[in-house]
Protein 1
Amino acid sequence: MATRSRRDSPGTQSTPSASAATDSKEPSRTGEKLQKVLARAGIGSRREMERWIEAGRVAVNGKTAKLGDRVDDRARLAVDGRALETAPAQETRCILYHKPPGEVCSRSDPEGRRTVFGRLPSVKTGRWISIGRLDFNTSGLLLFTTDGELANALMHPSSNIEREYMVRVLGDVTQDMLQRMVEGVMLEDGVARFADIQDGGGDGVNRWYYVVLMEGRNREVRRLWESQGLTVSRLKRVRYGNVFIPSKVKQGHWVEMERGDIKSLYQMGGLVPKDVARTTAKDREAMERQFGKRHGRGVAKKTGRS
């Protein structure tokens, strides 16, 4: 909120002062809080951005920023000396993508492998930010949003959001192995455990299981099974919190999430729901045409709950 200046007392005349002469050098008293703009860009939470500002890592228009600074759309921001692209506040959009194996979750890959961002529709302002990641050989549910603060909230360990995977395991699985993975196994980066394991059926040494994690460490599902001398031959994420992957969304396809589902994501991340973009039928058709031209295919049609 902009600070309201005091009115001059009756009968007095306002005169220029030294402080008024330097007003142009002072931080803007209008616009959005700097930490909020940085969080929306997807580089960290508001609280983390506040620490970066206090540590002198952020610059606004070439000058070291201070906590409490506000910025507008014209401000030039830099973090650790590198220019940062930001977008003005906008209505939030989210999409659900069914990642196939063989794609990386980075925006570019030095090895030239396909990235998940190459299949996503364009946005007029801002960019798509991935809510979590999936390994190169892992398929399944991947969420994207234009709101970096939402993405960080949903990925933060304090949110305690369940990630459910369907995994095919090669080897003889015993009850003792399952119990150990639920109680906790010491891996190279600390203790890891499944919150739940359910038998998914199968024949012989190839069996399916549904497992639930409360965090998303690198290759955590695979490493837990490998700690028991077993091999994961297939891995697919089927749920992120209360969002399930719809059966109609095939691999390599995406679907725009509805307004009510996006608001539930904010609630899941412990945030107050913001303005959410309403996707009209015309908008959806335009995105489908764009996707088809780029990849020779369409996207999933509107499903029920995403």
Protein 2
Amino acid sequence: MSHESPRPGDILQRLSGMIPDRILSDLSDAVGFWAPTADPSNTTILALRLAHFLGQCAHESDGFKRTYENLNYSAQRLKTVFPKYFPDSSTAKKYAKSGKEIASRVYAERMGNGDESSGDGFRFRGRGYLQLTGRDQYTRFSSFIGYDCVLDPDAVAKKYPLVSGLFFFHDQLLFPVCHQGITTETIKHITFRVNGGHHGLEKRIHYVQAFFEKMNPKSGA
């Protein structure tokens, strides 16, 4: 009796009930962005790619609930998270709880942004499930998706929260890294590329492993 190879849609169905239906729908619509063209029926590769991608998205977006970067920092938190930009209490207190001012300072003159007074840091703050950040990334994503997100940055959060994350994995060449497995070292490497550090690593490991086990059940299960 012939056995039909699984399709990407079959893998997605295994995630039903584990992630919101809207995410499943968006992944189905964007299958060409995450399914390998060489062998789109390779169950393990599909599971590895989606597990790493969804695991990082789940953590960065607080379970797919947040599509904007949270910049509501207290003075003490600013000194802890951004000591380079808020080295003393006086500076931290001046900016505390003002997301616009914080982002404009922290992201100024890097990632393609202008200086602090330009407001680019806030204009191109983190959006989407993987927190696309900076004018440079918004510009590259605009070319990728065919919509001007530099002119309309909120579209990343409202229209393209998932696809912007898929773009990030493509842009940073992370999908090939996913093929290395779900080891702690691989998750740490991808986490650093996504986060710039290892914030929330234990939760990310949990998410990635849980997604992988759901999509890639043991043979005969």
Protein 3
Amino acid sequence: MKAVTSRDNPLLKSARKLRGAKGRGETGTFLADGRKLIAEALDAGLVLETIFVSESAFAHGLAAADRAFLERAEALVGPDRVIGLGERPYRELAGTETPQPFAAVFRKSAGADAAPFEGASILVLDRIGDPGNAGAMVRTARAAGFAEVWTVKGTADLWSDKAIRAAAGGLFRMRVREGLSAEQVVVAARAAGARVYALGMSGQDIYETKLRGGVCLIVGNEGSGVQADLAEQADAILAIPMADGTESLNAAAAAAVALYEKRRQETIAETTA
């Protein structure tokens, strides 16, 4: 492990920039905090570039699991890319009052320039502004068996720390495409053989709609729903039945219902085949 005391260390300066969306976008990298999230990224096959360790953690003694974790990281990147930081520079990097003792720089997962998988199930986030909501939807999509997540311009950055924590590792195991236009979403989804559905307040009953096979499911902005350009090009608008007097579900809850309705239908089809 290499000890760094200067705030001007090039690796540290580059990593600090990843707290902002601009830095992540320019470099194609992101910062993950904590042993669990870092291990999830490694297990998903993401490329580790640098790992930072709080020297205060060493002062209190590392548990056996932490030592094994660092040995794994060092074997991947070499000792010069395992950086020990004093308390002040580490807090500046972590950006929290009680930071976890490990932070790592990773390459984003592939998908931005790749064609969608044929017959893939795709979740599209249309101008979802809250990164916690966006991350929660990604987590549910992964659990429901969706392979890809796309975002329309105006959606929160999925690689922000808040979104990554909410996704709980799910983001690392999905193909990610960001900043698409409405036209790009529809063209790419149809090229992959997916039917395009938008969630809405009125439309055909989701429980009476066949959702097996390739599906592109669009979830809209928390306040205004799916934008008109997308809704008009969808194969159908899907509505979730609700009791009289209920205004709406929030975006993350509606997404969870729709994602698991697809999984429910496919599970039934598999068990009755």
